[in-house]
Amino acid sequence: MPGEKEIIRRIRQGDIRSFETLFRSSYVSLVRYAGSLVKDTDTAEEIVQELFTSLWQERKNLKIKSTVTGYLFRSVHNRCLHHLEHLRVVGKHRDAVMAGSDILTASADDEVNYAELQKTVADVIENLPGKCGQIFIMSRFDGLKYREISEKLGVSVKTVESCMGRALREFRKILFEHGK
After folding, report:
1. What is the pTM (predicted TM-score) of this model?
2. Cβ distance 115 to 107 under 8 Å?
3. How far apart are CA 64 and CA 102, in angstroms?
4. pLDDT digits (tens, 9 = 90+) for 85-113
5. Which residue ranges of the chain lie beneath pLDDT 50?
6. Residue 136, Cα to own-chain centre: how many angstroms?
7. Between vectors from CA 179 to CA 174 and to CA 180, what angle results, nearest 5°?
8. Rg (Cα) of the chain, in Å, rounded?
9. In which region does residue 39 sit, left (phi positive, over 0), alpha (psi from -120 to 50) or beta (all else)?
């Protein structure tokens, strides 16, 4: 088996076999590690799958200064922390709503902005190619895991991951443009 530097070099060049080898050799341990942090196997699997999707999509710019294993575990760790922080913020807002907080009282401007945001989201989803829009809706609005979407649509999990990556890139681009 080639060394870590060789594997990374091959992945940068688009060698799918080297990427799949890395995926297969590290997936289970990364999911276990993520599961120990987020306490949910489905979420742990999704975090690791999203990491590998991102890794493949950004392979040409891949810069690993430590070991590949160290890089993967650090990336999973950071993604888990981000997920847990997101849950904390969502819980905080839910608690505020349940307590009848005035902080979340919507003004007329907020309602207009929300309507514009909904239209933007609908436009992005509508303009996604193929089944990408449907896959995005099933994942983000229906709460289905990648594996469930794959089974329902009769496509591979990699196809689901690819479509989600494309959708998220489009949303980031639109949000960046609107943020200026």
Report:
1. 0.54
2. no
3. 47
4. 888 877 776 766 666 545 445 555 566 66
5. 101, 103-104, 180
6. 11
7. 110
8. 19
9. left
Give the pLDDT score at 106: 52
Q: Report CA dihedral (17, 23, 26, 27) to the nearest 10 degrees.
A: -150
Nearest Cα to Cα of residue 35 among 50, 45, 49 = 45
Q: Which residues of 163-180 are buried (b: 16+ CB within 10 A; e: fewer)?
A: bbbbbbebbeeeeeeeee
- What domains sit in the chain, N to C, each tagged with a CATH number? 4-94 (1.10.1740.10), 106-179 (1.10.10.10)
